[in-house]
Write a structure and sequence with these properties.
The complex is a heterodimer.
Chain A (H helix, E strand, L loop, with lengths): L1 H27 L15 H10 L6 H25 L19 H36 L4 H15 L2 H15 L16 H38 L2 H8 L4 H39 L4 H10 L3 H29 L7
Helix pairs in contact in A: 1-11, 4-5, 4-7, 4-9, 5-7, 6-7, 6-9, 7-9, 8-9, 9-10, 9-11, 10-11
Chain B lengths: L1 H20 L4 H8 L5 H11 L1 H23 L31 H36 L1 H16 L2 H20 L1 H16 L2 H15 L2 H8 L4 H12 L1 H24 L11 H9 L7 H28 L7
Helix pairs in contact in B: 3-14, 4-5, 4-14, 5-6, 5-8, 5-9, 5-12, 5-13, 7-8, 10-11, 12-13, 12-14, 13-14
Classes of the chains: A mainly alpha, B mainly alpha.
């Protein structure tokens, strides 16, 4: 198992390098000029110097190499410095945003908590709703509850977040006036009242995100339970007189959870991607909105770093899912 | 092409001939008296029993017909500006009302639907072509399997929505300069969606090709000297048609949602060229006063995707021989 994990980790390195190269080359083709906003009165030779200051003067492969060094070598040092108070990274050039002229990773670190709060809560809520629904609709297959569950999850698949989000804004904040339509990230939770406000503003984005995740997870849970409910070991468990609760909730559920756990792990990075739209609808200033803003402002280092962070998340959680599968199911050990 | 058709229709008759000369018993005779049922007839019979799929199919046909034929009945130009009758509610002259420039929303919905549906179908066809091509190559030729599947894994590891946004940003200008504004962006969106959504099809097709390649009829075809390309087109492809059809329906749904998402983020079609996603995006500005402007395009997107998803669900059941006839 350890062997397999190490092999997969080693294999992830060329994958990530290739992805970073693809992203870099794609952005290389950008027609936008970061100097377009500079006034025309600035003489060309000064513009050329500004260009070089942004690191644009050198050939492509050198800039790619520099970006890799900055991202994989200098940024981790900055992280170590900020945690332990050391000075490894002093004087090194970091990945600089063209919009704010400050290091990209600093902005990302500022934005991540908002995304994690909203998306993470939505994911937990969705799991808590989806698993019981999946279990019960499999146990009572073709009952009205199961039919309803199928329909609701079909709707959850089909209604895109930019519509469900706008719809809940119309209903709950325009018509009923219960919740604010804009997420206020400057809110500091230090009292019961501010906690209630925070809870109120989180309900709608969490609801929209959770609907989508619930739809997928409950379908998956149901299918996985159905696969197991007709197995021989279930009949054996019933035959030896175990209670129905023990049979379903212990014997069947444990085995059905194996694929579901890996699907949950696989879904986490795609949630960050899907949250881009939800963040945009509710004006949550998380990393999704940061990416949209950077794309519209032609801030290439920011776009490159963010896209790459998404890619790292996908590769990482693929790896975690594979390893989890092996740990949970001894039949699928890879070595 | 006509030769192929003829030979295909002849095969069942030739197959029946020896059986009928063997003078079978009465009930076998009876069985033979009923005309042979084609596979597609069985599929259709099974499909009919799936209520959700039938409703989905009918709804999808109604939406597509309404969007393409509707403008012949409702002949108001969607771009015609009538500033005096702006922001009107529903009336006989404008059943869905008018927008902030006095343009008829029903006409805009139809014209937007044409773009959304044709983007969905074209992007699906492109993704399907790429996916089946790579899937068949990887499944059939062992030497290509490794590299092509690594490529698929790499594509699956890419963060797709951010990359789509970046592609829209980068190639918008050059393509609209080359093909004109509307057509350039249409090509860009279709290619972007097609290139980023072929991977699931490729994986499914590869798996099926791997299984079918080892069957006896492929061996028989090879032993009489059929070339690889003919084995693929005449023996392999018809047998992997069902997974391809199922991913086709689901592909339309994802393509429509992706296009609307791009338009919603302001990176899709230009403002004077409506699509459902763009109409929704424009409607958000007037959310408080006129919530119905968001409601109609959103409902159209959701209903189309829902009907296509049910259609795909029914098609999957109908094409699965293990479920069929149960």
């Amino acid at each position: 198992m350890l062997n397999f994990t190490i092999r997969r980790l080693v294999l992830a390195v060329p994958t990530l390098l290739f992805i970073s190269l693809v992203i870099f080359l794609l952005l290389e083709l950008a027609p936008g000029d970061p100097m377009a906003q500079v006034p025309l009165t600035v003489p060309p030779e000064v513009k050329e110097k500004m260009r070089e200051a942004l690191g644009l003067g050198q050939p492509m492969h050198i800039r790619f190499w520099k970006w890799i060094v900055q991202f994989f070598w200098i940024e981790p040092q900055v992280l170590v410095d900020s945690v332990f108070g050391t000075t490894f990274s002093e004087g090194d050039l970091r990945v600089i945003s063209w919009q704010t002229r400050s290091p990209v990773m600093d902005i990302v670190v500022q934005r991540i908590p908002q995304t994690l709060w909203v998306v993470g809560t939505a994911y937990v809520v969705a799991i808590l709703i989806a698993l019981p629904i999946g279990i019960y609709s499999a146990y009572r297959q073709y009952s009205w509850f199961d039919q309803m569950g199928t329909f609701v999850s079909m709707v959850g698949f089909s209604v895109p977040p930019f519509f469900s989000g706008v719809l809940v804004i119309v209903i709950f904040s325009v018509q009923l006036g219960w919740f604010p339509s804009i997420y206020d990230t400057t809110l500091v939770v230090n009292s019961w009242d501010s906690f209630v406000v925070q809870l109120k503003q989180m309900i709608m984005p969490v609801m929209v995100l959770a609907l989508q995740i619930t739809a997928q997870l409950s379908r998956f849970m149901r299918a996985s339970m159905l696969d197991n409910l007709n197995q021989d070991y279930v009949r054996t468990a019933r035959a030896k007189g175990l209670s129905e609760y023990t049979v379903v909730m212990v014997h069947v559920l444990r085995n059905s959870m194996i694929p579901v756990v890996t699907v949950i792990a696989l879904g986490i990075p795609s949630i960050f991607g899907g949250a881009i739209i939800t963040e945009q609808v509710f004006k949550v200033n998380g990393i999704g909105q940061l990416l949209i803003g950077a794309i519209q402002a032609n801030d290439l280092p920011m776009v490159q770093t963010l896209t790459f962070i998404f890619a790292v998340l996908i590769v990482l959680f693929n790896l975690i899912a594979d390893v989890l599968y092996g740990i949970l199911d001894p039949r699928i050990r890879y070595d | 092409m006509t030769d192929h058709d003829k030979s295909d229709t002849l095969i069942p008759d030739e197959g029946l001939a020896p059986a009928s000369t063997a003078l079978p018993t009465a009930d076998v005779m009876e069985e033979l008296a009923t005309p042979p049922r084609s596979q597609w007839r069985d599929v259709w019979d099974q499909f009919k029993t799936h209520k959700g799929a039938m409703v989905g199919a009918i709804l999808f046909i109604i939406i597509v017909a309404g969007v393409y034929l509707g403008p012949y009945l409702w002949s108001i130009d969607p771009t015609q500006i009538d500033i005096r009758s702006r922001n009107q509610g529903p009336s006989w002259a404008h059943p869905f009302g008018t927008d902030q420039l006095g343009r008829d929303i029903l006409a805009r919905m139809m014209s937007g639907g044409q773009t959304s549906v044709s983007v969905g179908i074209t992007a699906m066809l492109l993704a399907l072509f790429l996916g089946s091509f790579i899937g068949v190559l990887a499944g059939f030729f062992r030497r290509l399997d490794g590299p092509l599947m690594r490529l698929t894994d790499l594509f699956l590891a890419l963060p797709l929505l951010p990359l789509l946004l970046v592609m829209m940003l980068l190639f918008r200008e050059p393509l609209s300069a080359a093909f004109g504004l509307e057509r350039g962006i249409f090509i860009l969106i279709v290619c972007a969606i097609g290139i980023t959504s072929w991977m699931p099809t490729a994986r499914i097709v590869r798996g099926d090709v791997l299984a079918i390649k080892e069957r006896e009829f492929v061996l028989a075809a090879r032993s009489i000297g059929t070339s690889n390309s003919q084995i693929i087109t005449r023996h392999i492809l018809p047998n992997v048609l069902s997974p391809i059809m199922v991913s086709a329906t689901l592909g339309i749904a994802t393509a429509i949602i992706t296009e609307s998402a791009l338009s919603f983020l302001g990176l899709g079609f230009p403002p004077d060229f409506p699509t459902w996603g763009r109409l929704l995006f424009d409607g958000v500005d007037y959310l408080q006063q006129y919530p119905e402007r968001v409601f109609w395009p959103g409902l159209a997107i959701s209903l189309t995707v829902l009907s296509v998803n049910y259609l795909g669900d029914g098609l999957r059941d109908a094409l699965d021989p293990r479920i069929r006839g149960r």
